[in-house]
Specification:
InterPro entries: Pyridox_Oxase_FMN-dep (IPR024029), Pyridox_Oxase_N (IPR011576), Split_barrel_FMN-bd (IPR012349)
Pfam family, one: PNPOx_N
CATH architecture of the largest domain: Roll
Strand content: 25-35%
CATH topology of the largest domain: Pnp Oxidase, Chain A
Structural class: alpha+beta
CATH class of the largest domain: Mainly Beta
CATH superfamily of the largest domain: Electron Transport, Fmn-binding Protein, Chain A
Distance between the termini: 48 Å
Number of strands: 7
Mean pLDDT: 93
Largest sheet: 7 strands, antiparallel
Organism: Bradyrhizobium australiense
Protein name: Pyridoxamine 5'-phosphate oxidase N-terminal domain-containing protein
Shape: globular
Low-confidence stretches: none
Length: 200
């Protein structure tokens, strides 16, 4: 079985309708601004100079990503694993980013694309205190495109209606990483949760 070529795609997928093309807007409009203001979670995708791609979860209180203008988003960076894959891609690669915003209970998602840069301006960081502390840096996104995705993917997954699994069905991340690497302690979920809670 051979992989599909670009010329094969048109035989499988019809051309998008004019409405689908037109819904991609060059800025954050009133609807997108409201959606971002309700969103506590998004996924940030970046690409590196070597062609590598990174997708990273980002979260905070609803509206943690600030709409600073129709073509400017500000995302505070909170404590994480310090790999900084996304930020390294932004400063060393093309700088292009894509975001997908989620709002619990709404099946549609919002996709935003643009050019990213990093700031450690003290005044800016002081304006974005959350969980009792300022961010370590702020990602500035010059928005070039924004559009809403239909709700089919989340409806198929029943993401918001699905019964949550018990956390105990999966080993803690400390146990998983210890098993994979032999490094660190096999910390319980309770220990890890308490550390998460104090390091938000």
């Amino acid at each position: 079985m051979s992989d599909l070529a670009a010329s094969d795609l048109a035989t499988i997928y019809p051309a998008p309708t004019p409405r689908v093309i037109a819904k991609a807007r060059p800025e954050i409009d009133a609807h997108a601004k409201k959606f971002i203001g309700m969103s506590p979670f998004c996924v940030l995708a970046t690409s590196g100079s070597d062609g590598s791609v990174d997708a990273s979860p980002r979260g905070g209180n609803p509206g943690f990503v600030h709409v600073a203008g129709p073509n400017l988003l500000l995302m505070p960076d909170r404590s994480g694993n310090n790999r900084i894959d996304s930020f390294r891609n932004i400063v060393e690669g093309s700088g292009f980013v894509q975001l997908i915003f989620f709002v619990p209970g709404i099946d549609e998602t919002l996709r935003v694309g643009g050019k990213g840069s990093l700031s450690v301006d003290p005044e800016l960081m002081a304006s974005m205190i959350e969980f009792g502390k300022p961010p370590r840096a702020v990602l500035r996104i010059e928005v070039r495109e924004a559009y809403f995705h239909c709700g089919k993917a989340l409806m198929r997954s029943k993401l918001w209606a699905a019964t949550q699994v018990e956390r105990s069905v999966m080993p803690s991340i400390g146990e998983v990483i210890h098993d994979q690497t032999g490094l660190g302690e096999r910390e319980s979920q309770e220990v890890i949760y308490e550390r998460y809670r104090t390091q938000l």
